[in-house]
Amino acid sequence: MAVPKRKHSNSRTGKRRAHDHLKKRQVTYCPQCSTAVPTHVVCPKCGYYQGRTVVETTDQ
């Protein structure tokens, strides 16, 4: 089995892991009800998406 000849330095390990971080979800506001909604997702409050009502919601 192949085994590394030398230990990778902490700097080198950090450079490799630099792109592994999580990014924040991009949020927009629903034009219908002004609720914060992630992009490309149907609004959970009013069911509005791309200019039309996609899902009928029951208002309580």
Automatic annotation (TrEMBL):
Keywords: Ribonucleoprotein, Ribosomal protein. It comes from the Bacteria. InterPro entries: Ribosomal_bL32, Ribosomal_bL32_bact, Ribosomal_zn-bd. GO terms for cellular component: large ribosomal subunit. Residues 1-22 are annotated as: Disordered. Pfam families: Ribosomal_L32p. One of its GO terms (biological process) is translation. The keyword Calcium does not apply. The keyword Transcription does not apply. One of its GO terms (molecular function) is structural constituent of ribosome. SUPFAM superfamilies: Zn-binding ribosomal proteins. Belongs to the bacterial ribosomal protein bL32 family. This is Large ribosomal subunit protein bL32. It comes from Rhodopirellula bahusiensis. The gene is rpmF.
